[in-house]
Design a protein that fits this description.
238 residues, alpha/beta, Rossmann fold, five-stranded mixed β-sheet, four-stranded antiparallel β-sheet, 8 helices, 9 strands, 33% helix, 25% strand, binds adenosine-5'-triphosphate
């Protein structure tokens, strides 16, 4: 598994031999220090994984099928526990705070959201209803909710056109946009994005990655992106 910063090369150090990330310019928004992950108390999947994501940057985690990318992301979002997985060694910090013992909803409230592999949109809800579920953790007024929706539609104009369609009847690309848009509704400072290119046509992948870059530049949302499509990861975002 490889880890790479994809925004214009500034200063990023990762996978330091001692497991400590060294930042000379940007303080890290996320630091994983030497973690070990075990499923079902016996299946060792990750050992000695360390990386850091500088604030306001996009970092890609690249690797083949089964390399452990999704497991790394789920370790951060703590969704791992739902699959009988445990972080048995090491530590994970978000904004300087240890988060290994927090729940996924506490993490969303702190500004860390995950877009899971396979989108997981609610197929029987409309695109707009799916987006609204993303704001569930926020206590905001109706008018603020409306402006948050408009903010998402600004980045994903296709979603505005499809807002009354049932998500289950939309294309894979639209569902991926919906999943990212739903995460945006929680106003995250960082998004964990798992295999956004999976099963999508190259033009759609390009469009989605363009939007990710735009979000990163305009709103300084940091991204940790898991991809096996190294061509996209290496060139698509630079
Ligand atoms: P993919 O691109 O296929 O999603 P990945 O790099 O994201 O691959 P993971 O899904 O993290 O890899 O899987 C890493 C390893 O952990 C694989 O060998 C997989 O079989 C194993 N694994 C994943 N989930 C579980 C689970 N719930 N229980 C046991 N083993 C698991």
């Amino acid at each position: 598994m490889q880890c790479r910063a994809l925004t214009p090369a500034r200063v990023l150090r990762f996978l330091q031999p001692n497991g400590m990330a060294t930042m000379t310019q940007n303080p890290s928004i996320l630091t994983i220090n030497n973690i070990e992950v075990i499923y079902d108390h016996v299946i060792l999947v990750l050992k000695g994984v360390s990386l850091s994501v500088p604030r306001g940057k996009i970092v890609a985690l690249m690797g083949a099928n089964g390399a452990g990318k999704s497991t790394t992301l789920k370790s951060i979002s703590t969704l791992l526990r739902g699959e009988r997985g445990d972080v048995t060694k090491g530590s994970i910090e978000f904004n300087g705070e240890r988060i290994d013992q927090l729940t996924p909803n506490e993490l969303v409230r702190r500004g860390l959201s995950q877009v899971m592999e396979g989108r997981h949109c609610f197929g029987h809800l409309t695109i707009e209803e799916n987006l609204l579920t993303g704001a569930y953790t926020r206590k905001i007024s109706r008018s603020e909710l409306k402006s948050e929706l408009e903010r998402v539609y600004h980045y994903f104009p296709r979603l505005k056109l499809r807002r009354t369609s049932m998500a289950g009847y939309t294309s894979g690309g639209e569902q991926q946009m919906c999943a990212i848009g739903r995460a945006l509704m929680a106003k995250p400072s960082m998004i964990l994005l798992d295999e956004p290119s999976m099963g999508l046509a190259p033009q759609i992948v390009e469009e989605i990655f363009g939007i990710v870059q735009d979000l990163n530049k305009t709103e300084q949302v940091s991204f940790l992106l898991a991809e096996q499509n190294t061509t996209i990861s290496r060139s698509g975002l630079e």
